[in-house]
Amino acid sequence: MNKFVVVTLMASAISFVGCASNEPSTHYPISREHGSELLQKRTWVLTHLGSTRTQLKATDNKPSLSFDQSTNRFSGSDGCNRIMGTYKATEQSLLFSAVAGTQMMCQENQQLSANYKQALSKVSRYKASGHHLTLLDAQGTTLLRFESTVQPR
C-alpha cells in the first residue's frame, strides 16, 4: 500500500509540474503587431490633450481617430465635427495631410475641437503600445493621448 501511495504522489507531483510552463497561454492571443500596424483595426479615443485629461460627459461626442492602412486615410471626430483625411505612417513617424471635416456649430466643445485639430496639424511622431497611442511633435512633446477600442471584424 505504501508503494501505491508513493507512486500516486509522485505521479501527481509530476503532472502538476508538467502543467506549469513559461510559454504564453494559447487562450489569450498575443499581439504580433508593431509599428504602424498597431494603429489599425481600432478606434482611438482621446484621453489627454497635451498633459490635460479630457473631461467629457458620457453623452459628448468624443474626439477619436481610426486609420485605414489600405487607403492611407483616417477618419474620426474632433469632439464636434467628423474629420477625415490622409496620413503617412512609418515605424515611428506619423503625418496627417488633407484634413477635412464637417462644419457644424457646437456650443459646448468648440474650444476642444479647435485645440484638437491644431494639435493634429503639429503631429510628426507617435508611440503605440497595446491600447495606448501618444502623438508627438518634432521635439517629442506629447500633443495627444488616446486609448483604443478594438473594432469588430
UniProtKB/TrEMBL annotation:
Protein name in UniProt: DUF306 domain-containing protein
PANTHER family linked: HEAT SHOCK PROTEIN HSLJ (PTHR35535)
Sorted UniProt keywords: Signal
Entries under InterPro entries matching the protein: DUF306_Meta_HslJ (IPR005184), HslJ-like_sf (IPR038670), Hsp_HslJ-like (IPR053147)
Signal sequence segment: 1-20
Highest classification ranks of the organism: Bacteria, Pseudomonadati, Pseudomonadota, Gammaproteobacteria, Moraxellales
Any single Pfam family the record assigns to this protein: META
Keyword check for Translocase: no
Organism: Acinetobacter gerneri DSM 14967 = CIP 107464 = MTCC 9824
Domain DUF306: 38-147
Coiled-coil residue spans: none
Record PROSITE patterns: PROKAR_LIPOPROTEIN
